[in-house]
């Protein structure tokens, strides 16, 4: 897991496991994704549904994992 917080309190959290990556934060995520695609071969699977066998569902302001 990697984290970054700038002087304004804007954050980015990146979680890597083997060939999978998830990220969340207040940073400009589209810019982060474009930068990563320039450096690495990536497939954008959009909103996460499963990660490491864990089901993930986002509803309004809540995230459910089971």
Written account of the structure:
- The protein has one helix at 29-39, and strands at residues 2-5, 11-17, 20-25, 50-51, 54-59, 62-65.
- The chain is built from 1 helix and 6 strands, in the order E-E-E-H-E-E-E.
- A hairpin with a 5-residue loop joins strand 1 and strand 2 (11-17).
- Strands 1-2-3 form a 3-stranded antiparallel beta sheet, with no helix packed on it. It has a 3-stranded antiparallel beta sheet with strand order 4-5-6, with no helix packed on it.
- Helices cover 17% and strands 44% of the residues.
- It has one domain (2-65).
- The chain has 66 residues and is an alpha+beta fold.
- The longest helix is centred in the middle third of the chain and has 11 residues, at 29-39.
Summarize, please.
Helices cover 17% and strands 44% of the residues.
Descriptive terms for the model:
17% helix, 66 residues, 44% strand, three-stranded antiparallel beta sheet, alpha+beta
> Quick one: overall form?
globular
For the largest beta sheet, what order do the strands appear in spatially? Answer: 1-2-3
Distance between the termini: 20 Å
Q: Write down the domain tally.
A: 1
Mean pLDDT: 86
What composes the largest sheet? 3 strands, antiparallel
| Helix proportion range | 10-25%
User: What class would the helix/strand composition place it in?
Assistant: alpha+beta
Tell me the β content.
Answer: 35-45%
How are the secondary structure elements laid out?
Elements: E1 2-5, E2 11-17, E3 20-25, H1 29-39, E4 50-51, E5 54-59, E6 62-65
Antiparallel strand pairs: 1-2, 2-3, 4-5, 5-6
């Amino acid at each position: 897991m990697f984290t970054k917080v700038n002087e304004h309190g804007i954050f980015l959290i990146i979680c890597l496991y083997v060939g999978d990556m998830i990220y969340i934060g207040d940073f400009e995520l589209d810019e982060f994704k474009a930068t990563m695609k320039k450096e690495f071969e990536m497939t954008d699977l959009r909103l996460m549904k499963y990660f490491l066998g864990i089901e993930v569902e986002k509803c309004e302001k809540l995230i459910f994992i089971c």
